[in-house]
């Protein structure tokens, strides 16, 4: 498979990633540019942004230009006992740009596995996420977390919904001081407060984190979740991506939708996660589908700079000519330069923003 550093557009990146997913048995999912707006209203917390472009169809229905693909995949999923629906997509989505803060059309690539999912499916999603990021011309890292464990610890300390919501936010911020203040305000015991506070710096290699987690999980009744995370880390540890993947409990997605393993991927020089995924069985249940689900999306708008040329020049040779220049001589000069493996631009005047190594006047 070609590395993405041999390509220069989001379209070619999407093609290469789609080829990877197809090789692993994922089938293409295609959808319309439009969905009924109600689908996004009901699940707006799941979206990257709740800003959606809407318009009225000819029959009066309120439609939206799709800001997401996962919701449409779940909507169209058909459950078959013992089976899993594995699909990948390469779709344009419409949402507010992080750079311009205006609406923009973006290409998004991802995959979903829906059905009777198990530990292998979670592992495969994380592995293919890492494999995807490894194709970009930058170093990558991935962080994984288990919302089931965090949820158990927080609800064991206090089952107040407001406490759990605020504590989850503070964990995502790695705010140990804030967690101490919060647990004190709710009158939580010192033992439980210490367990909660531990998640503010629960980050690192799997081996060390699992050692720290075990007594906490034993105390709050989260051993089944612990064993799932431990098995997943064992499988990941056998791959060539083991040193790039850490446990980080500050990776927190909406607990109304995600229910287990969640993960995020980063590329050097980009300060936001370019890949986001996890188990979202709560979302499928909310949408009336009795099925497990795991998947991820890659936001190609965040990695557009990876496809920009890094050379100092736009073109190797600038050829300047006028109306008196012999056309045959012009063609022969250009072909000679091209045969040497150099790029060339023919102009009658020097463009203001063109960067070139050499200029030839004919």
Write the layout of secondary structure elements.
Elements: H1 10-23, E1 27-28, E2 34-36, H2 37-42, E3 54-56, E4 62-65, H3 70-76, E5 84-96, E6 103-115, H4 119-134, E7 140-146, H5 147-157, H6 161-172, H7 176-185, H8 190-198, E8 203-204, H9 206-220, H10 223-237, E9 245-248, E10 261-267, E11 275-279, H11 281-286, E12 292-299, E13 315-320, H12 327-339, E14 344-347, E15 356-361
Parallel strand pairs: 1-5, 7-9, 13-14, 13-15
Antiparallel strand pairs: 2-4, 3-4, 5-6, 6-12, 7-10, 8-9, 10-11, 11-12
CATH topology description of the largest domain:
BirA Bifunctional Protein, domain 2
| Unreliable residue runs | none
Query: Architecture of the largest domain, CATH level 2?
Result: 2-Layer Sandwich
The termini sit apart by: 43 Å
Largest sheet: 9 strands, mixed
What features would you describe in this structure?
- With 362 residues, this protein is α/β, with parallel strands linked by helices.
- It has three domains: 1-139 and 268-309, BirA Bifunctional Protein, domain 2 (2-Layer Sandwich), CATH 3.30.930; 145-223 and 231-243, no CATH class; 315-361, no CATH class.
- 37% of the residues lie in helices and 24% in strands.
- The chain has twelve helices and 15 strands.
- It has helices spanning 10-23, 37-42, 70-76, 119-134, 147-157, 161-172, 176-185, 190-198, 206-220, 223-237, 281-286, 327-339; strands spanning 27-28, 34-36, 54-56, 62-65, 84-96, 103-115, 140-146, 203-204, 245-248, 261-267, 275-279, 292-299, 315-320, 344-347, 356-361.
- A nine-stranded mixed sheet has the order 1-5-6-12-11-10-7-9-8, sandwiched between helices. A three-stranded antiparallel sheet has the order 2-4-3. It has a three-stranded parallel sheet with strand order 14-13-15, with helices on one face.
- A hairpin with a 7-residue loop joins strand 10 and strand 11 (275-279).
- Helix 4 crosses helix 10 (223-237), helix 6 packs antiparallel against helix 7 (176-185) and helix 9 packs antiparallel against helix 10 (223-237).
- The longest helix is centred in the middle third of the chain and has 16 residues, at 119-134.
- The two termini are 43 Å apart.
- The mean pLDDT is 87.
